Structure formats: structure tokens, C-alpha cells
Amino acid sequence: MKYLRWGPTGKEKPGALDDVGNIRDLSSLVEDINPEVIASNRLQGLNENDLQNLPIVDRHERIGACVGRVPNFYCIGLNYRKPDAPVDMTGSEKVVITSKATTALSGAHDDILLPANSQKTDWEVELGLVIGKEAWQISEAEALDHVFGYCIVNDVCERDYMFEHGGQWIKGKSVPGYGPAGPYLVSKDEISDPQHLGLWLKLNGHIMQNANTSQMITGVARLVAHMSRYMKLVPGDLIATGTPPGLGMHQQPPVFLQEGDRLELGIAGLGSQRATVRRSPS
Fold it and tell me: How many domains in the chain?
């Protein structure tokens, strides 16, 4: 099932996509797509027949972040091999874990607002996963049982804040609106293998990132298990699993987002995002 949240910012309602692409209003069944609803298993009982009896949502409605009231928004760094790099068969891992403020979350198609002093805002298409039940010191074999579903995350980053303001990555990742998530939260039963998904990003129609999740250094199951050694993951936690090559800061010369730029990005089976870059007045 593809779940989503629709409506004005701060007043989103729950919805789901039916088999012909209509958005169906779930607000008569659940209050939102949030940690409590995810943990309660109320969403798992829904099927296509149930959706046919629910109201159709106007397609002009805004699509919000696919999960509400996210407890933690984690980000994984340096997690993709270059296409020609050998696979590390030693089992060694150095997982870089950072985070974004949850106030960075935004809708998949919302404008990206550059702060007035932004100088080096960059893009990062990433596979996001949402935790479905508590995970504390679990094994890799059971890790996917703790995942509810997957989504697209654009881990937008202000590189100036990240690298030139004290060395804390979270500073550059937490600008309001720098965490578009969705449009859909796709239940894990629709994704047979999260390690074989194509992902891409275009800037003004030009492909900047084009890769596959098979290039991850630490895959989804191992990643969830690894994180659970050090922290308890809880329902609704959103984890952005890292981005492939093609970032603006690595272009020659570097390329950063400017007012009027258009971003499009997608992941196989999870839909796509589109956004226009604007300059915030303050």
C-alpha cells in the first residue's frame, strides 16, 4: 500500500493511493500517518477493497511529508560505492550516523526555500525507511521485521553550514524545508528487495545522480541492526540511508542550488518528487 498525507502544512490528513492512482481519504479510519498509527498495525489491515468505499481526494491538494510527528530523523553518511569500486567482502563497516532536525521535514513537491545567507545548498536523493516497531540490539536477520516501509528523501544540505560553522553536519541539514519526504510511504510488502532499487536526481532536466541501492556499502538490514546496537529505534523514526555520487559539491566546478532551479528525483517503486528552489526573504 502507498500511504500519504495531504492538505495544508500542519493540517495534513491521512490518505492512500488506490489501484488506479486516486488518492483516497483515510481520515475516517485513522487520525494520521504517525508513530502511534504505524505501531498499532491499523494500517496493515487495509486492502484495495476497503479503499473503494472511501472519498477521493482532489488531485490539486498539497502532498505533505509522508509521516507525521517523526520522533527522530537520522541520516547515514558516506554509504555508497562508486560504480567501479570493488565490493568489500571483509564485513568491515564504519557507519557514519548523523541527523536532521525534524522541523526540516516538508512535502515532496514543496518549494525549497534557501535562507537569505545560503551559499552552498546541495541535493541528495536517498532511500528513506520508516521504523515500524521498536528495535534495540537486534540481529541483521530480524532487522527488516522492524521496518514499516520506504520513501524518497531529498537530504538537502547547506554545505557552508556543514563544513564552515563548527564541523557539525546537523547544522547544514536542518534548515526548515530541507527534508522533503515522500510523496508516499510504501509498505515493505510492495518492495521485494530494498537493495535493488534505481534512484536518480535531475537538476533543471540534467541527470546529476543515477545509481542503484545495490551500491550501498551498508545495506538496509545491516544498517538497522547496526544502529540498534547503540540506540533504540522507535516507530515513526525516519532513516535516510545515504546518497550516491553526483553531488553538487563534487562537480568541477562545484554547482549549488540557485533561485529558480528545478529539482526532480525518484526511486523505483516509490514515486518521484519535484521542487522549485526559491530564496527566502529572511
Answer: 1
